[in-house]
Write a structure and sequence with these properties.
The structure is a homodimer. Chain A is α+β, with helices and mostly antiparallel strands. Chain A has six helices and five strands. A four-stranded antiparallel β-sheet of chain A has the order 1-2-4-3, sandwiched between helices. Chain A is globular and about 55 Å long. At the A-B interface, helix 1, helix 2, strand 1, helix 5 and strand 5 of A face helix 1, helix 2, strand 1, helix 5 and strand 5 of B.
């Protein structure tokens, strides 16, 4: 698959076939993601892989409850559409994905967000190259219950940066609308 | 070029041919980068493109002076090797790259770091797909002089996330050493 094809295939996928993703393929994708650049080649990304639907539902419920709690306490401001969606018991933030990859790392790493985002892009492209679909689901990141965090193997001093859902897409939707690149300035030799 | 080939070609490049990068190719790469995902499809990334060597040198000098100043005032702690390097007048943080792309965006965007990092990965892969080399040079991000920021077209309420150098590589070095992916936990249906 060429890069042009990959650019078309890497879409936000929120509707998946019932088919499970073999762990071997997840491991291949994570292996490739280690090739992502990181600040000073520090490689701070760690992973938790969940392909149990009951656990995925519990993670969705935990994240939804925390988001709604934060919103009620005015710690965050969610737009009303999100609130309605999160209040719906049947809404799973991970949609029907058969697998969720949590990308996490030590809070002490200053570049953690960008390092994990770069790894996430490798994972999303690596999945697309294997005809898998992904979506970075930020709504699924609010996991605080110590019991659940322990179940995921995430230490107290770690932070969840990117929950990525993974599965075989029912369809590849067209790209949502994009604006042209906004180039603020070009400074060229010839000025 | 397949994704496997891209994974091999996307290396941190710090040694470039004298050859300039045509602006048309930079624009193509930035156009592709708009396909990167962003939180709520907000598309907050903006760009400044510098392909004037005199300006690139001035940007390097500005960033070095600010980093050394912050270090002297104990606002940041640089490791001694970096200090020595930054104190060397002949050291250009952008190496000999003929082009620097600044990825910037509004400070008010909560997801700016990860949105710009995802766009950066598209730019780095898009460059590799065209036999160009890149490197995210965090040392080049410390541009504060209002005159220089105005020259780059960067408004006061914007933040520089990623300076990416771009050019034709003299060689594609092997990947620096990577550890195996650290998978903290796998939770599968079969438990």
């Amino acid at each position: 698959m060429t890069f042009s094809e990959l650019l078309q295939k890497r879409r936000a996928i929120r509707d998946f076939e019932e088919k499970e993703v073999p762990l071997k393929i997840v491991e291949e994708i994570l292996q490739e993601s280690t090739l992502a650049p990181s600040a000073s080649n520090n490689q701070p990304c760690r992973f938790a892989v969940v392909s149990c639907r009951k656990t995925i539902k519990a993670l969705s419920d935990e994240s939804k409850a925390n988001l709604l709690g934060d919103h009620a306490e005015k710690k965050i401001r969610l737009n009303p559409d999100y609130v309605t969606m999160l209040q719906n018991e049947n809404f799973n933030v991970f949609y029907n994905a058969p697998c969720v990859i949590y990308i996490v790392g030590a809070k002490s790493v200053g570049s953690l967000d960008v390092d994990c985002a770069l790894a996430a892009s490798y994972i999303m492209f690596g999945a697309a190259a294997r005809d898998l679909g992904t979506c970075w689901v930020a709504l699924g990141a609010n996991i605080r219950d110590p019991r659940i965090r322990a179940e995921l193997g995430i230490p107290d001093n770690y932070r969840i940066v990117a929950p990525i859902i993974l599965g075989y897409p029912k369809a590849i939707p067209p790209a949502s609308e994009r604006h042209a690149p906004e180039i603020l300035r070009v400074i060229s030799e010839a000025r």
